[in-house]
Amino acid sequence: MLVEKNVPLQPLNTFGIVARAHQLVRVRSEAQLHEVLADAALRPVPKFVLGGGSNIVLTGDVKPLVLKAEIMGRRLVEETPRAWVVEAGAGEVWHDFVAWTIEQGFYGLENLALIPGTVGAAPVQNIGAYGVELQDRFESLDAVDLETGQNFSLRAAQCAFGYRDSVFKHPPALDADGRPRGHGLAGRAFITRVRFALPKPWRPVLGYADLERRQAELGVDQPTPQQLFDWICEIRRAKLPDPRVLGNAGSFFKNPTVTPEQCADIIARDPKIVHYPMPDGSIKLAAGWLIDACGWKGKAVGNASVYEKQALVLVNKGIADPATCATGGEVMTLAKAIQTSVYERFGIRLEPEPVVV
Ligand code: EPU
């Protein structure tokens, strides 16, 4: 086991923020992880699990031991009359895994193409796009408890998936004596492998405005999985910045939900507000629209700015040179200013999506 010291993290986070890890171990197998947890010097050190670094904002050097998830492998576990069950190691690049499933003829992940990050990070925030969320295709996962060293597996119900949310984002609740109680697993679980059940027969998930537009333009009524995959890639490439050019962590805020009364109140003032009724009766508002309406597109704090084509995405304009690179502090100052202005105009508190480290 190699413990790397003072490791530059800029290439390991898609925001391209300059920071260092005091100590970092690349975890390529379960056995290596158990070695770390059995090591007398490393066992007591707090740990931070890093996947593709696509959903984090680094605000300084990382003092906990960074465990970089690099467990690889992808395979068909079984094929039943109702589904293909496929598995991938946590370190696999999400998009490459999606592309592989389609090449193999295992369909159902195409709407989630081109989401940055790794397979192991995907369940943490229940990634979603174009009408499909990870939880719709999730079967189970394997993980290691970083406190006890125990291996465990979780099925969907145990992951408490919500909108960009899961058990892995919540700290364990504490009882009256301050002892951990309940199932929050934030900071505790190292996800090693994830399995997906891809339902048969395959049916395209359409109905999203951008996809309907593409269908109409091309006159395609029933797209193939490959066509749908290609459309999603084209739509995302046109709308979202490439992190190799402009550092970013995808959507920076969650889309907020409000009551129908709150929504009616906002519509009375801003009839154009983009809103979607949810199955539970609440109304989801497009955070990008709210930010855009407050005039934020293109505005900056230092080299952290609001993306010109999608106000929900904050970008680091200076990744090419450490001297011009946005800091995590600048990103957070910009984020707080946006939150304040959206609150002042609409009375809505936006919640950041990435994890602030
Ligand atoms: N809009 C504006 N101005 C903007 C941005 C958006 O008016 O600057 C409007 C759009 O015109 C549209 C609406 O807001 O009517 C929603 O925009 P879009 O369809 O681009 O989707 P989104 O709500 O901004 C969500 C996810 C994305 C996902 C897309 C597609 C969240 C926080 N974001 O974005 O996920 O790719 O839908 O399904 O739920 C991510 O989580 O990192 C992410 C990129």
Instruction: Describe the oligomeric state of these chains in a short phrase.
Output: single chain
Shape: globular
Tally the beta strands.
Answer: 22
Query: Percent of residues in helical segments?
Result: 10-25%
Which range does the strand content fall in? 25-35%
Q: What's the alpha carbon Rg, rounded to whole Å?
A: 21 Å
The low-confidence parts are none
Average pLDDT level:
95
The succession of helices and strands, N to C, reads EEHEEEEEHEEEEHEEEHHEEHEEHEEEHE
Number of helical elements: 8
End-to-end span in angstroms?
25 Å
Protein structure class? alpha+beta
Biggest sheet statistics: 5 strands, antiparallel
Identify the strand order in the major beta sheet: 6-7-14-10-11
Hetero ligands: uridine-diphosphate-2(N-acetylglucosaminyl) butyric acid
